[in-house]
Write a structure and sequence with these properties.
The structure is a single chain. By secondary structure, the chain is of the alpha/beta class. It has 2 domains: 128 residues, 3-Layer(aba) Sandwich (Rossmann fold); 187 residues, Hypothetical protein af1432 (Orthogonal Bundle). The chain has 15 helices and 5 strands. Strands 2-1-3-4-5 form a 5-stranded parallel β-sheet, with helices on both faces. α3 links the parallel β3 and β4.
Length: 352
């Protein structure tokens, strides 16, 4: 173990060095705080044994500096004054021990051994905390990946029949998660909506192909059937004990509700619509407007944002729309970072 002995009196340094070296410690000397800091900058040390009263920077001031610059070093203070107040002051500022001069061999060795032992335990504890934190991060990532995989597998059966691309579905989750983050949700809530929002249209698996893939306008009767994908989606996902699937059921049921109550299935209006449903409704429409499909051109940003503003308080929650517009650059970047990629067999046929 490497110890730096700091004292302005050479006789004290020699005495301490002799005691410590006989016990197997590697000892370096310094006569003032400036020299001690220079040594600490270039050499690793395990412990500093420092006098308190020295010319220039005092031992207490040095200890505060060491705590900020080299926090892993143990510090034991040596004083010619047997003062309880001074000892408590040193301990409050991080000293591992306090020894009174004249020093004796057993007192110094016990103080040094205790300080090094405490330092070792603190470093081991910190290492264990680091390992635990890493494991928590890894497990959290596994849970997040599992959620997304479950969500994508639930969607895979309907994805090949629907007109939307995989990138669109992924963007909906990313938009919704970004909105949750802006709203100050915790990580659990953000992860839930990231996995749940893409399932908003899962009920389309129950819509007949002749309607879902019809190349042309739907009749009134066909629209009635198309609208049932909201309740069918909620039924597919209902009764789950998994939080993000529960959220997915709520989103599936109400993502076509409108803030003014004119949406479908027409069960809710305003803040009666679950927050995750209002979020998904907004980002779903935004993405649909900005996306190119074989049946439509992509709207320009100005056109899309103009439509959203016109629907404030009608289709969309005005507070959420304001947040979306205030942070629009973040949502636009998600759109640009996750472009649609069409394979020949994935060309969509019709829009919502």
């Amino acid at each position: 173990m490497r110890i730096l002995v700091l004292d302005d009196q050479e006789i004290i340094r020699v005495q301490l060095k002799r005691i410590l070296q006989k016990s197997g410690y590697a000892v370096t000397e310094a006569s003032d705080a400036r020299t001690a800091l220079e040594i600490l900058d270039r050499e690793p040390m395990d412990l500093v044994l420092s006098d308190i009263r020295m010319p220039g920077m005092t031992g207490l001031e040095l200890m505060k500096t060491i705590a900020a610059r080299v926090p892993d070093i143990a510090v034991v203070m040596v004083s010619g004054v047997d003062s309880m107040e001074m000892a408590m002051e040193c301990l409050r500022h991080g000293a591992y021990g306090y020894v009174v001069k004249p020093v004796d061999t057993s007192g110094i060795l016990i103080a040094v051994a205790n300080a090094l032992r405490r330092r070792m335990l603190e470093l081991e504890h910190r290492d264990r905390e680091g390992i635990l934190a890493r494991k928590v991060r890894e497990q959290t990532e596994e849970i997040r990946n599992s959620r997304e995989e479950i969500s994508h597998r639930l969607l895979s059966a309907s994805e090949h029949r629907d007109n939307e691309t995989g990138a669109h579905v992924r963007r909906i989750g990313l938009y919704a998660a970004e909105m949750g983050a802006i709203l100050g949700w915790d990580l659990e809530g953000i992860d839930c909506i990231r996995a749940a929002a893409p399932m908003h249209d899962i009920g389309k698996i129950g819509v007949p192909d002749r309607i879902l893939q019809k190349d042309g306008p739907l009749t009134d009767e066909e629209w009635i059937i198309m609208k049932t994908h909201t309740t069918m989606g909620a039924n597919i996902l209902r009764d789950s004990t998994v939080p993000f699937i529960q959220m997915g059921a709520r989103i599936a049921a109400c993502h076509h509700e409108k803030f003014d109550g004119t949406g479908y299935p027409g069960l809710y209006a305003g803040t009666q619509i679950p927050l995750e449903g209002r979020i998904t409704a907004l980002v779903d429409v935004y993405d649909a407007l900005c996306s190119k499909r074989v049946y439509k051109h992509a709207w320009t940003e100005e056109e899309a944002l103009g439509y959203l503003r016109a629907q404030q308080g009608k289709h969309f929650d005005p507070d959420l729309l304001k947040i979306f517009l205030d942070h629009y650059a973040r949502f636009r970047q998600i759109f640009l970072d996750n472009p649609d990629k069409f394979a020949p067999e994935e060309i969509p046929l019709r829009g919502l």
